[in-house]
Every structure is written in structure tokens, then in C-alpha cells.
Amino acid sequence: MGSSQPTKPANASGQSTSATSINSPQNRSCWARSSWSLALLAALGATAATVTWLKPVTHSSDYAVCSANRTIYTVDPGLPNVQCIVVHDTLISDIGDLEDITLRWRSEMPLAGVIHLPWPFDFLEPSLKVLNIQPNSIVVPGLTDAHAHMLHYGFKMNLNLEDCTSVDDVLNHLKAYVISHPDILGDPTRWIEGMGWDQNRWPGAQYPHADDFDREPLLRGRRISLARIDAHASWVSNRVLQLAAPLPENVDGGLIIRDKHGKPTGIFVDNAMDLVPSQSFSEARAIEYFTRAASDALAVGLTSVHDAFSVPEEIQFYKKLSETQKLPLRLYLMGNVNSEDYWGTQIPRLIQHGFGERLTVRSVKLFLDGALGSSGAALLEPYSDDPSTSGIMRVRPEVLAKLVRKFSTDGWQVNIHCIGDRANQVVLDIYEDILANASFCIDALRPRIEHAQILTLDDIKRTGKLGVIPSVQPTHATSDMWYAEDRLGPKRILGAYAYRALLNASPNRVLPLGSDFPVEGINPLLGFYAAVSRLSVKGDSPHGSGGWYPSERLTRAEALKGMTLDAAYASFSEDILGSLSIGKKADFVVLDRDIMTVPMDDILGAKVTATVIDGEVEYGNL
């Protein structure tokens, strides 16, 4: 991109003027008529100190970003595509065609209308800096991930096991990790913590065992704790089992996997994970993890993240950081304390806090069940591939109902993790009971169901009737599609990952989209592609190249709105974020291709060339 500067025509016909053409008969009169202009110009230069009122405004930081093809997608229904947006300080001050926005901008400058200079003195008038994007590029509002985990992302990237295809592959990764970290290699008491394994992708699809670590001499006797890809199960070493002893026989809302002799195998599911010892919170590690997560997020066009699990120590970390420097992107934190008693007084309420006003804490995250991949999703009927279980309810419904009512009364937005149809039904029952009280206003509460992954068809309709916001992650559909129907059967699957049905049921047509990173990839285009194609990144699905249950696809416009304006609504910020509208924050992203029109298989090839927050480039270049 480059600045668009006014060009000086050489003569009235627009032809280039040379030394010989100036002396030609047809140009002598023109030259004579303009000689007074040159004389005046010299006079102005000689007396510049006394005519400072004629100097142009040179210190304005205003600028316009323009697209000759009008591929600036505003997500503003009143004007969905424009040629230009104008940035003034941190806000969008104007949108429209270049000629119109330039005239409006000049009219608002000092002395506008008092004096208007003809060429060649028009250079003295204020000039709006114009940045033109490349012909194939587009501009979209800043992208939001409506459900993610910033510090967990940084944690996972420290030892990422996502690509491991077997237990042996995990052991090889761990061995290489230990060898590459001399501090851990020389100290067997140091913790080895990682994330990303998924037994469903391994031969046999069976849970691993603590004894597996002991097969590798370098790992034997070490403190190893590895979180499953969905963070709903942990695989630990025998040394950690020794540290955790004695273990209870049963855990409410959780599961300790045991062998046929009743001995723990090293797998802890959901609430049982609380029994696993771990390193205490460290500010040094937090800044390392956050720096990595923020850097990667900006590089893929994320300007806002809804962090879906922030404990008090983490909230305090973010608060302190925001008060000493401007956060690199906007954070909407969902507070969490592991307690069945009300804990709303243990976290601060922060609205657009800190330098740049980029930190908000006004919501809480509660949990009801586990995840489908670890068979912890709470179902109304037993699992189709394991009739011995119907999943896990991590908290009793009556306890959850009490918490939801208290948090709602105190003005907190309540966001509840629900995967299975039983969990979703219980939460809808709770919300329905609360909303029956006229003192509760749905628009003031904006309750959310995080994931809303498996619902009965009737409960899908009920989400819309109640006005509950389903916050969904399209890449969960394309990750789980290879085994989901085996777990759920042909009937229940019709209400699973049903994004089209959920959107159609919404009275405001609101469906915020997220990724749940680091469970899924951090690039929001992965979710965009999954939502509109229902295909894997390889272009396939259990139903072929047409997509997995393609009737549940979203349009590209709906998907873009889901990660911009809908996400803003779900965080009470639709008045300042979510669209490129006049008066809203100047958060936008430039992509090198038009994801709204390119062939489906070209979407994931798009690259971010600039990520802008508050009018300032945080990644790339304009």
C-alpha cells in the first residue's frame, strides 16, 4: 500500500509540459497568465513567518484506508461494502467513497470554508492521508474469538503433543523435550507439563497408561502431567500418582480411570483432574505464555479474545499488566473459581480497564459437564458406543441453579459450559426459571451457553425462545465429525453441531463463533472455513466433499458476522466493536484475498497483512 497524493497536471489538456512546449505559441498565453501565480508563491515563501495561517495542517494523524474494488466489508447492514474508511484517533470517523469522505474531512478542518486555494496553492490546504490496499485484498472488522484460552495456549505451545499419532510418538516428543532443556535434564524433580494428546487419533483409540512413561529410561521416575487436547483429562506418570496418593475411590463430577485390579492408570477425567498436583501460578510463566499467545493471535487477525476460564490469579495478572502498559489486544475475561459456593466477590468487576481500555471482566464461567472426546459430555441416554455411561455431570443441577441466580442478581453475565444434551437441557431449565421473574431482563443478562454442542431439536428452539446466546466453535464439528455419530447415534446427531438451526432459532440472529484454542487452532479462518464448508482442512468429511451435514452450514456473511458483530453483542460491546461503523473503534484487519468470494478451498490460503487496533497497526503494515 502507499499514500495517494494529488498530482499536478502540466497543462489544461493533461499533457506533459516540456521546455520546448512552454515556448510554443499555444502555451505562451497560459504561461503568462500563470506568471502571477509564481510571483505570489515566491512572495508567500519570503513572508512565510507572517502568513502562517496559510500553512496546511501537517500534524493530523487521520488517515483513510481505501479499496478500489469496494472490498471493505463493514458488517454494517446499512452499508455493507464501502470504498474507504477514515480513522481519527482511535475511532472510525467516516465511511464512504473517497471523494465524499475527502470533502467531508476537509470541511471539518480549521478555516474550512473560509479560504479555498486554487491550484497550484491547494497544497497549502489540509490533505487526508490515503492508504490503498492491494487490488485482491479486503478489509474486515477486527476478528474476535468468542471462546478461547490465552494462557493455556502459551502453555500448550511450550510442549505441544497435538500431532502425536501414538503413545510412542508422545514418548519421543517428551524425550526430545527433556534433552533440549538442560535444566530439566539435570533435575528429575522438575515438572514436565504439556498438552494436546488425543487417544481417538491413535491406533486402537484407547487411553494411555502411567506405565507407558516408564518404558523410556529418560522419563522414568519424573513428574509428568499431560493434558488431553480438550483439557478435560490428564495423563500422569507413576511419580505423580505417588505424589497424589492417597486417592479417593470416587470423585463427584469426575472419574479416575482404573485397571481391572482397581489400580489407577494415570488418567483423570474432569473434576478428578483437581487431584493432580501441579506447579503453582507463576507471573514469569504467565507473561511468557501471554506474550506468545498475543503475538500469534495478532498475526492471524484477532483483535479481541473472550478468555473462557480466568482464575483470580490470572485476572490479577491481566489487571496489573493493563495498568502498566497497553494490552496488545482486547480481552474479555470470564472469571472462574472452583467452588460450589458463591464467589463473585473474589474477582474484580472491570469495564474497559487499563491503558487503552482493553480489559473487561464482567462475566463468569461455570461448568456442568465434560467433553465428548473423553466421554464426559452429559447425555440424556447412554453413549451409543459405550452403553455403560451417559457422561459426567460435574455439578448438581440445584447447586448450579443457586449459583446462576446469585450471579445474575449481582449483575454478572453467566456463561456455562455445556456439551451434552442433558447438560444443555438442565441449563435451559435454569435460565427459563430465572427469566420467568420479571425483574430479570434478557438483554441485561445476555446469558450464554458455551459450546451448545448437542441439543434435542426442541431445546434448539428453546434457546431462541428464551434468548439465550449459544456460543459455538465450528472447528469442533470438523474435528469431532469422524467419531461423533458413533458416540451419539443417527438420531441425536441431528441436534449436534447444529449451527444453522441455532442461528435460525435466535430472535436476533446472533451466533458468536470461537475456536476454543488451544483445543483447536488459533487462526479464525479455520473456524470461518469450517462454518461455511463443514469440511476438514484436507477438504473431506465422513459424508464426502459436500461437507458433513451440509444443511447446517453458515453463509460467509453469517460466519463473518459471528466472529465480529455477534461476538461483540455477546460481550456487551456492540456499540463500540464488531463493525466498521462511524463512531466505533478502529479495529480492522487486511487480508490478502477476498475470503467472501474466493473458491472454498482458497479460503485457508488467505494471509493477514495488517491487524489494526484503535487505529494503530499491531501486526504487519498498512
Written account of the structure:
45% of the residues are buried. A hairpin with a 5-residue loop joins β16 and β17. It is globular, with a radius of gyration of 29 Å. The N terminus is likely disordered. It has 622 residues and is of the alpha/beta class. The longest helix has 22 residues. The strands form 5 sheets. Strands 8, 14, 15, 16, 17, 18, 19 and 20 form an 8-stranded mixed sheet that branches. It contains 20 helices and 23 strands.
List the helices and strands and how they pair.
Layout: H1 19-22, H2 25-46, E1 63-66, E2 72-73, E3 81-82, E4 84-88, E5 91-96, H3 98-107, E6 129-132, E7 138-141, E8 143-148, H4 150-158, H5 167-179, H6 182-185, E9 191-197, H7 211-214, E10 223-228, E11 233-236, H8 238-244, E12 254-258, E13 264-270, H9 283-299, E14 302-310, H10 312-324, E15 330-335, E16 350-353, E17 359-367, H11 397-409, E18 413-418, H12 421-435, H13 442-445, E19 448-451, H14 457-466, E20 469-471, H15 474-480, H16 484-492, H17 499-505, H18 524-533, H19 556-562, H20 565-569, E21 588-591, E22 608-613, E23 616-620
Parallel strand pairs: 1-6, 8-14, 9-10, 14-15, 15-17, 17-18, 18-19, 19-20
Antiparallel strand pairs: 1-4, 2-3, 4-5, 7-21, 10-11, 11-13, 12-13, 16-17, 21-22, 22-23
Helix pairs in contact: 4-9, 11-12, 12-14, 14-17, 15-18
